[in-house]
Design a protein that fits this description.
This protein has 166 residues and is mostly helical. It is 62% helix and 6% strand. The protein has a single domain, classed as Winged helix-like DNA-binding domain superfamily/Winged helix DNA-binding domain (Arc Repressor Mutant, subunit A, Orthogonal Bundle), CATH 1.10.10. Helix 2 crosses helix 6 and helix 3 crosses helix 5.
């Protein structure tokens, strides 16, 4: 006995839900974030630690408070990140010469080497993610995503998830 089979056409309304910008960005964001976390595991860095380490490397000598404001990270969460980076001897706090109550942040030599490795890994991961795109398409994608971020009033800096921690 033959049983007739037919290919089921997906419900166009359901397909549209999964083809939406919000759903696609959410799925991509989750996947990219989880895989970036995995990429950093060999360096024993969390993405939040990488973000702060990179920011210290770009502008050494700024205060912890100024860095937290710049990255839009709560002061208490910044303290815990810096404490961990300092414990691992990647970052050090130094008294500011003009106001010894203020501590400025600096990379240690170990921190500088670690940051170089982390940037290399992050760059390789970025290349992997954008491999299907041409350079022009990548630039256009970043421009359009920037417009969406602006529309959502997301300020540049650390990942939005870091801003929610208290």
């Amino acid at each position: 006995m033959l049983i007739a089979t037919r290919k089921l056409d997906p419900n166009p309304r359901q397909t549209a839900l999964f083809r939406s910008v919000g759903f696609t960005l959410s799925t991509l964001g989750y996947t990219v974030s989880r895989r970036f976390h995995d990429v950093l595991v060999p360096l024993e860095l969390e993405p939040s630690e990488f973000a702060v380490l990179r920011a210290v490397g770009v502008a050494e000598g700024q205060s912890q408070q100024a860095l937290a404001e710049h990255l839009h990270i709560s002061p208490s969460h910044m303290v815990s990140i810096i404490d961990e980076l300092e414990r691992r001897k990647l970052v050090e706090r130094k008294p500011q010469s003009s106001d010894r109550r203020v501590r400025t942040l600096h990379l240690t030599s170990t921190g500088r080497k670690h940051l170089t490795q982390a940037i290399e890994v992050a760059t390789q991961y970025e290349q992997l993610i954008t491999k299907p795109l041409t350079a022009k398409e990548r630039t256009e994608l970043l421009r359009m995503l920037g417009r969406i971020a602006d529309g959502l009033e997301l300020k540049p800096g650390a990942h939005a998830a870091l801003r929610e921690k208290t």
